[in-house]
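Table S2 (continued). Query chain:
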Amino acid sequence: MEKKMRFGIKSKIIIGYLIVIVCLFIAFIVLNSQISSLQKERNFIIDHDIEVHDLTNRIEKHLLDMETGQRGYIITGEASYLEPYNSAASSWEKDYNALYQLLNNNPNQQEKLEKIKGSIQDWIEAAGEPTIALKKENNTKELQQFFEKDPGRQYMDDIRSQFTSFRNVEKKSTETRATELDEKNQKIKIGLYGLLLFVTLISLAIAIVLSNSIVNTIKEVTQTIKRITASKGELKGRIKVRSNDEIKDLGIATNALLENIEERNWLQTNIAHAVTMYQGIASVDKLAEKFLFTVSEMTGASFGAFYVREENDKGDLFVKQAAFADRKGDAGRESFLIGEGLIGQAALEKRTLVINDVPDTYQLIASGLGDVKPKSIFIVPVLFEDEVIAVIELASLHELTVLEQELISQVIETFGLTINGVIRRMEIARLLKESQAMTEELQAQSEELQTQSEELQMQSEELRMINEQLEERTKDAEEKSFELEAAKEDLEEKAHQLELNSQYKSEFLANMSHELRTPLNSILILSEMLEENAAKTLSEDEEEYARIIHSSGKDLLALINDILDLSKVESGKLDVLLAEMNMSELPDQIERNFSHVAEQKKVQLKINKAQDVPNIIHTDEKRFQQIVKNLLSNAFKFTDSGSVTVSIQRVADHRLTTAMRTVDTDCWLEIAVADTGIGIPKEKHQLIFEAFQQADGATVRKYGGTGLGLSICSEFAKLLGGWISLSSEVGKGSTFTLYLPSLSNGLVDYEKVNFAYEEVAVSIEEAEPEAEITEIDHPVQPVEASLPDDENVFQDKRVLIVDDDQRNIFALKTALAKQGMTIMTAHNGIECLEMMKNSEPFDLILMDIMMPQMDGYEAMQKIRGELKLVDLPIIALTAKAMKNDREKCLEAGASDYISKPLDLNQLFSVMRVWLVN
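Corresponding output:
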């Protein structure tokens, strides 16, 4: 008979687990495959759809660049506008081909793309290239006819509509893919649950089969054991097992056990009794006494001692805790060190010692009738976690049998745990209390986490709602983006128009300045000559007429200059030239300029300058002088009696406001011009600083003026980092105060000063001046204008006048001829060059700038370059007087520069300098 193959329980369990693992592995592969597919679809939606939208936007941007470049070129004629057009024309097809290739799985969208491409090409052929070609040919008429119909706009509208339809389809396609992805995700979830259910059922089936195979066999063994047990001590029955596995081995072992059952019954009973007898004992002493009494009773031992390990300074020490049959406490020594005596040696070696040949000197066992020598000694160590925690010594009147020794050894095996448990009971109780406290804390944390979980769930719901709102706002933002783009284009067009308007205004003012100054130049020169009446041919009335003409001309010149200055300030083209200015000369300058005015109006002029005013400040002296002159002119104009007082002082540190301290300056100056004139109503204080404004119509009729002076002063003060304040009362006079910093470190940001203007003005007006004021008492005397004696300088000098205006030529020729000079004239640059080549050398040239055929700039360049006349004095005369005219004239070759209308004294002074040099 063949040997039956062995199929153990372990093998059955392993096979069952393998089947479950295989099922789980298959489920994992299926699930991973589905998740990978889902991931690929999600990546396709992200990459594909974003790329489609990106390429669509880029094509639209190229088309917009082409349209913008086309229109810019047509409007301006600048070739630079064709660069974005050409660049976009060469780039949009690349993006189109990439988009077309990206949609190779969507023929409908490719068809729409082809229509869009056709529309773009139609726009290029019908509106883009033809209009550019017409512009290159400068065919304005056909361009105008083309844009009256403007077929390109319809193409553009069609293209935008087609792009919108294309995007809508792509958006719906994206939403469809997302929906399919959600459905597939739901299917995967259902499949996952199905796989889990399937694996669970397979596992349960395997568990049932294996358990039945094992349990049925065990039941057979159990029934046999029960029959043996029920036989009341009859141990002849044996277990029969049919399976060839561990159960069969159990039956064989059980049968072998039955053979020793009677012998072991005693052992098991006593072991059970020994184990149960020390339960509930909390003291080591009582435990030791109970153990010695019980073991002695079981084994017949007549004498015993129990030693427990304690730690002290000398090391581990085994101390006697209990004794059996002790006679007055003399049962053994009180303590042993490790390795000391048999007790110490047993602890050291961790082994049981059995001594049957007891020496005669061994302690006797006492009884009521006498002392008896023991036959056997049994010393056994008690271990816990491989460490000796106690040692037990027993002495018996007979030799302990192997069964008794085994009984003691088996009881000792678990007795170490009992001893350690008793020793550690208090510590366990303490740990239990700590554990209860931690449990309560964990419970509180659990409740807190539960609360946080509920809050997170609520926040998740709120985030979902916010996400929906954001999606709606995103749609609104896209619509508004298109609207803003259109508005941006309109603003750019308007900004360009404004820039052109500003340029036209500047050119207009320059040309008007030239046209006004040219005849005004003749009027001033001739009227001045008539006023002098050198030949004494005019009557007094005629001289007065000449003075009135000359005065009116100067007023007109001042008005022109005011308008030009105001225009430059408004356009931001007025240069500020910072330099050192000598404040010690200011009182003398004011007296020279206005003492004759004060004498004519019979008004007293007072000039007060504080001692702490620095001698040198840094500012634009020209603008500063203009402000002071305007303020003084106004003061004398509106003051019929009384006085005009000029006070110059330094603003004390304690009067400086926060805004003034932020300015990087050495010091602040306060120049106040006070008069006793008509005064200004409080409600008009702000109005008079506006251009072309005065307090009221009566003021204009009575005193005249344009209303530009204070406006210009205010703007100049802002450019210099300061401001002008006004304090006035009707009928009592006015005080205009100029606050100005010394700008040694450059210009300041006026916005910082203007931001706190009212605070600064109020604080300074309320503060009491502490600087010591020194009144400068100057006698008011009339200043007589006289021309220097230049006969020796001008006599027989050859002067060439180059000007296209016969009036200017006549005026200059007449004035210069009276000085003994020889005058030659030319009407433009070409005549000037011809005369210089064919005539004798000239001593000086008066060169006008604005002339036909060849202007003064070109003529001066040719005189210096072609004719090599580097040292010939050339004085440039221009009526345009715009920004940088002086620099342009000097750069072209002029020796000096005078703006029209000409002041004869200034002209003679400049000519004298260059003729002498």
